[in-house]
C-alpha cells in the first residue's frame, strides 16, 4: 500500500509541476519608460529617482523581477527629449514616467496612447497637457511641482526676510514651454510684495557670465533661480557666480543650496517621485490616466546654507532659521 501511495503522489506531482512552471512563465514583466531632462549620474540627480524606485518597491514592483525600466536622459538638453521619447515608444513600453514638464510634453507628442505619468508637472492645464486636474482627459496624469503665485510669493518673502532692504530681484530662467506661465506667476508675486524684477535668460552655460554682469549693472539686490535641468547640472558654477557678485539667492531646487547657493524653498522631489510611483502602479493594474486626478505637492522644504550667508556677510534672522527644514553649516 505504501508503494502504491507513493506512486500516486509522484504521478500527481508530475501532472501539476508543468502547470505551476507554466504559470510562473506566464507572469508578465512590465516595461516602464523613464524620461528625464536631467542627468543620470551624481548623487543629487539620483536622489529623486531613488524616491521613485522606493515607491515602486513598496508597491511590489522590483526591477529585474516583474518590471524593467528603460532609462533615457537628455542631460539638460531640451532638444534631445523628442528623440528619446520616440525611442521609448518604439520599445513599446507600458507606461512612461517623465520629468519635468518638457519631458512629459515630448512623451505626449510621441504617443497619445501610452500612459504618461508626469513626476513634476508645471501648469499642465494651461499648457494643454490635460483638460483639468480632476479629470485629465487624455493619456497624461501625475503630480505637479508647484510653481504658482503662492509658492513664488513664499520664496520672495523668505528672500526679503533674509535681506530686509532688498528692493530689486534678478530672475534667471531658461526658456521652456512653461517659462511664460512661471514668469507671470513670479511677476504677480513680486507685485504683491512691492519688489521690482529684472528678468534674465540663459539657454546655455556660456550665457551665465553675461547674465550676472547685467545683474551687477542694474544693482540687483538678490537672485531667484528658476528650476531647470540645465541650471541643475551647472548649479555649482551658478552658486559661485552668485557669491562672487554678492547676490543672496533663492532657488526652486534644494540641491542649489548644497552646491553653495543661499536658500531654496520647493516641493520635495523625492516625495513627488515616490508618489508618482503610485500612478504607475495603478496604471499597470489597469487604471486609465484619464481617471486618475493630478495631485499637487504637499511636502515643501526650506534649506539654508549658513556658510554661504557668512561669505555674503549676512546674519540670517533666527526667525528664518527656525522655519528651516535643513541648515547647512
Walk me through the topology.
Layout: H1 2-26, E1 30-36, H2 43-58, E2 67-73, H3 81-90, E3 95-99, H4 101-110, E4 116-121, E5 140-144, H5 149-162, E6 168-173, H6 179-193, E7 196-201, H7 208-217, E8 222-225, H8 229-233, H9 235-244, E9 249-251, H10 255-258, E10 263-267, H11 269-284, E11 300-305, H12 306-311, H13 318-323, E12 326-328
Parallel strand pairs: 1-2, 1-3, 3-4, 4-5, 6-7, 6-8, 8-9, 9-10, 11-12
Antiparallel strand pairs: 10-11
Helix pairs in contact: 2-11, 3-4, 5-6
**Strand line-up in the sheet with most strands:** 7-6-8-9-10-11-12
Strand content: 15-25%
Q: Which descriptor suits the 3D outline?
A: elongated
Described by strand count, sense and barrel closure, the largest sheet is: 7 strands, mixed
CATH class of the largest domain: Alpha Beta
Number of domains: 2
Helix/strand order: HEHEHEHEEHEHEHEHHEHEHEHHE
Question: Can you characterise this structure?
Answer:
- This protein has 329 residues and is of the alpha/beta class.
- The chain has 2 domains: 30-145 and 269-298, Rossmann fold; 149-267 and 301-328, Response regulator (Rossmann fold, 3-Layer(aba) Sandwich), CATH 3.40.50.
- Helices cover 45% and strands 19% of the residues.
- It contains 13 helices and 12 strands.
- The chain has helices spanning 2-26, 43-58, 81-90, 101-110, 149-162, 179-193, 208-217, 229-233, 235-244, 255-258, 269-284, 306-311, 318-323, and strands at residues 30-36, 67-73, 95-99, 116-121, 140-144, 168-173, 196-201, 222-225, 249-251, 263-267, 300-305, 326-328.
- The chain has a 7-stranded mixed sheet with strand order 7-6-8-9-10-11-12, with helices on both faces. It has a 5-stranded parallel sheet with strand order 2-1-3-4-5, sandwiched between helices.
- The radius of gyration is 24 Å and the shape is elongated.
- It starts with a helix and ends with a strand.
- The model is unreliable at 1-25 (pLDDT under 50).
Amino acid at each position: 500500500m505504501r508503494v502504491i501511495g507513493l506512486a500516486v503522489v509522484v504521478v500527481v506531482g508530475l501532472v501539476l509541476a508543468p502547470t505551476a512552471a507554466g504559470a510562473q512563465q506566464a507572469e508578465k514583466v512590465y516595461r516602464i519608460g523613464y524620461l528625464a531632462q536631467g542627468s543620470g549620474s551624481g548623487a543629487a540627480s539620483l536622489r529623486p529617482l531613488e524616491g521613485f524606485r522606493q515607491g515602486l518597491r513598496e508597491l511590489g514592483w522590483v526591477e529585474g523581477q516583474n518590471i524593467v525600466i528603460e532609462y533615457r536622459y537628455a542631460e539638460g538638453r531640451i532638444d534631445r527629449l523628442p528623440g528619446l521619447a520616440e525611442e521609448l515608444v518604439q520599445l513599446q513600453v507600458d507606461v512612461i514616467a517623465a520629468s519635468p514638464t518638457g519631458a512629459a510634453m515630448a512623451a505626449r507628442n510621441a504617443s497619445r496612447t501610452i500612459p504618461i505619468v508626469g513626476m513634476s508637472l508645471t501648469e499642465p492645464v494651461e499648457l494643454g497637457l490635460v483638460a483639468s486636474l480632476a479629470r485629465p482627459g487624455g493619456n497624461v496624469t501625475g503630480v505637479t511641482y508647484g510653481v504658482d503665485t503662492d509658492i513664488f510669493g513664499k520664496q520672495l518673502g523668505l528672500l526679503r526676510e533674509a535681506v530686509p532692504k532688498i528692493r530689486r530681484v534678478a530672475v534667471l530662467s531658461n526658456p521652456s514651454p512653461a517659462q511664460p506661465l512661471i514668469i507671470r506667476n513670479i511677476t504677480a508675486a513680486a507685485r504683491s510684495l512691492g519688489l521690482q524684477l529684472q528678468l534674465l535668460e540663459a539657454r546655455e552655460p556660456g550665457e551665465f557670465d553675461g547674465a550676472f554682469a547685467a545683474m551687477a549693472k542694474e544693482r540687483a539686490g538678490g537672485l531667484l533661480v528658476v528650476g531647470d535641468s540645465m541650471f541643475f547640472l551647472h548649479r555649482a558654477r551658478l552658486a559661485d557666480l552668485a557669491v562672487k557678485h554678492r547676490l543672496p539667492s533663492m532657488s526652486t531646487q534644494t540641491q542649489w543650496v548644497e552646491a553653495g547657493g543661499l536658500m531654496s524653498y520647493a516641493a520635495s522631489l523625492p516625495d513627488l517621485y515616490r508618489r508618482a510611483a503610485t500612478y504607475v502602479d495603478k496604471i499597470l493594474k489597469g487604471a486609465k490616466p484619464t481617471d486618475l486626478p493630478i495631485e499637487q505637492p504637499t511636502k515643501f522644504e526650506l534649506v539654508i546654507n549658513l556658510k554661504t550667508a557668512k561669505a555674503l556677510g549676512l546674519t540670517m534672522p533666527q526667525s528664518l532659521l527656525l522655519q528651516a527644514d535643513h541648515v547647512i553649516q
